[in-house]
């Protein structure tokens, strides 16, 4: 049975069960006067809820204000088709329910903002929403004016800034994706144009070979040589830039000695394919004709270059495909809201999406433990966390340094570490990094909501933990995610 359809069955409320002195032991009421405590004792009551019982349901009219006396409770919020646990506590005196009953009546019904369940036999002190709202307005009028202004101001600013941040993030990611897509697309277009020219040249060379009245057996040998050289190039080891340059010089000298027309222009093509002078000598021996050798070298060169261009096109289009796949995985448009995931997929797709921001000056080190178990999570939300942490790290390093992303297991959690070797954070900054609207970035570059959102996603949304340690040359954010679902009741 889901929370949406579960029936709430509460034991009758017992009035007058708490004395004023007992109410004073609750931190919420400890500064009230004797008269105010007596009023609370007369208007409130105690309620007992058995373990597993639903106390309030998100979306129902907010009719009561609850203060926990004993037991353990859990608060959940509805996200899509899932109930996400945001808080679990057994702290005496915590409160929940009609917490905004004191706000002025704006015609909008007050509803519970979350569902509350008693995980063990629990006892609450309760006051009706009407009584709670009245006592707040009458006892603390100035505070209520301030709270109303603060609540409205925060709601308005969060809505405006949150919308702007989402649009800015979408624009930045879109611009970055277009930038990343442009490079392989342009490379494919260039390679296609060059390929068209080489195929045309091959047709012309074939015509010249035929016009030269080459014996059929020689022509067959030439075609066999072409296939052998292409196969040899496919298996050739990858050379360094220095090795390739040296090979070009050797091939150029060989072609000049054998009077190959434009040999120095053809040599780089053979060097790129890993073809050495020994292979050219074998071609010469197989053909046994100086005139045919010149045409054969050019013919085979065209074939090699054609293969290299087709490989370039394949690599470029493969890059486009991988970028689209990464963008799809990053946004999780085709995924359920909550599922079991491998954290490495989200980390890799985030690195791809932020590739334009990371730039060439930052070296990315990935130290992954691929044996880690999957974790229950909302993947799109976690990708937002990875985006914030990586973006902040790159900003701290000012585009130069080493970004290290490490994953490992610690007890019953999967740990994701995002570290940079930037200048570090002062102690006073480190204490405030998770505060809403706190930022060290210049005006216009940061809203101060990124790490606050990340904290709420990890801690409240996933039951995990996020911590930061920092010293010059080593700033590290540790995200811990439980490998098991929260216990059901």
From TrEMBL:
Residue ranges of domain Cyclic nucleotide-binding in the record: 28-136
InterPro entries: cNMP-bd_CS (IPR018488), cNMP-bd_dom (IPR000595), cNMP-bd_dom_sf (IPR018490), HATPase_C_sf (IPR036890), HATPase_dom (IPR003594), His_kinase_dom (IPR005467), RmlC-like_jellyroll (IPR014710), Sig_transdc_His_kin-like_C (IPR004358)
UniProt entry keywords in alphabetical sequence: Kinase, Transferase, Two-component regulatory system
GO terms classed as biological process: phosphorelay signal transduction system
UniProt entry tagged with the keyword Transport: no
Residue runs in coiled coils: none
GO MF annotation list: protein histidine kinase activity
The protein's Enzyme Commission number: 2.7.13.3
Entry keyword Aminoacyl-tRNA synthetase: no
Domain Histidine kinase intervals: 274-485
Catalytic activity: ATP + protein L-histidine = ADP + protein N-phospho-L-histidine
Domain of life: Bacteria
Any one Pfam family match given in the protein's UniProt record, by short name: HATPase_c
PANTHER family for this protein: HISTIDINE KINASE, SENSOR HISTIDINE KINASE
Protein name in the entry: histidine kinase
Organism: Actinoplanes lutulentus
Origin organism lineage: Bacteria, Bacillati, Actinomycetota, Actinomycetes, Micromonosporales
């Amino acid at each position: 049975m889901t929370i949406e359809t579960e029936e709430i069955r509460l034991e009758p409320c017992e009035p007058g069960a708490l004395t004023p002195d007992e109410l004073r032991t609750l931190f919420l009421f400890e500064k009230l006067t004797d008269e105010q405590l007596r009023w609370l004792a007369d208007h409130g009551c105690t309620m007992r809820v058995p373990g597993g019982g639903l106390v309030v349901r998100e979306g129902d009219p907010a009719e009561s204000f609850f203060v926990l006396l004993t037991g353990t409770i859990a608060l959940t919020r509805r996200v899509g088709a899932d109930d996400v646990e945001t808080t679990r506590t057994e702290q005496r005196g915590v409160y929940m329910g009609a917490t905004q009953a004191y706000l002025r009546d704006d015609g909008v019904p007050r509803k519970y903002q979350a569902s509350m369940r008693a995980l063990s036999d629990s006892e609450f002190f309760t006051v009706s929403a009407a009584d709670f709202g009245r006592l707040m307005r009458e006892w603390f009028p100035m505070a209520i004016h301030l709270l109303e202004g603060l609540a409205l101001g925060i709601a308005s600013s969060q809505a405006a800034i949150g919308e702007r941040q989402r649009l800015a993030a979408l624009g930045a990611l879109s611009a970055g994706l277009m930038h990343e897509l442009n490079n392989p697309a342009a490379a494919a277009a260039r390679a296609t144009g060059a390929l068209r020219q080489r195929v045309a040249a091959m047709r012309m060379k074939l015509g010249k070979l035929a016009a030269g009245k080459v014996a059929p057996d020689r022509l067959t040998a030439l075609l066999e040589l072409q296939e052998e050289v292409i196969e040899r190039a496919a298996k050739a080891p990858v050379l360094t830039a220095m090795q390739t340059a040296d090979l070009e010089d050797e091939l150029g000298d060989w072609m000049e000695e054998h009077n190959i027309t434009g040999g120095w222009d053809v040599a780089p093509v053979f060097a790129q394919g890993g073809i050495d002078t020994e292979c050219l000598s074998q071609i010469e021996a197989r053909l046994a004709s100086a005139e045919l050798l010149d045409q054969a070298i050019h013919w085979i060169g065209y074939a090699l270059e054609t293969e290299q261009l087709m490989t370039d096109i394949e690599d470029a289009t493969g890059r486009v495909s991988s970028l689209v796949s990464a963008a799809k995985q990053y946004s999780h448009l085709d995924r359920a809201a909550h599922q079991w995931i491998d954290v490495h997929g989200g980390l890799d797709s985030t690195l791809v999406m932020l590739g334009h921001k990371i730039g060439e000056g930052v070296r990315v080190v990935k130290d992954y433990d691929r044996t880690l178990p999957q974790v229950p999570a909302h993947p799109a939300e976690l990708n937002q966390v990875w985006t914030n942490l990586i973006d902040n790290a790159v900003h701290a390093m000012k585009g130069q340094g080493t970004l290290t992303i490490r994953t490992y297991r610690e007890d019953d959690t999967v740990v994701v570490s995002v570290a940079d070797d930037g200048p570090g954070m002062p102690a006073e900054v480190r204490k405030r990094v998770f505060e809403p609207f706190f930022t060290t970035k210049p005006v216009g570059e940061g809203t101060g909501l990124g790490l606050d959102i990340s904290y709420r996603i990890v801690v409240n949304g996933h039951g995990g933990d996020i911590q930061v340690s920092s010293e010059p040359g080593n700033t590290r954010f540790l995200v811990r995610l439980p490998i098991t679902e929260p216990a059901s009741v």
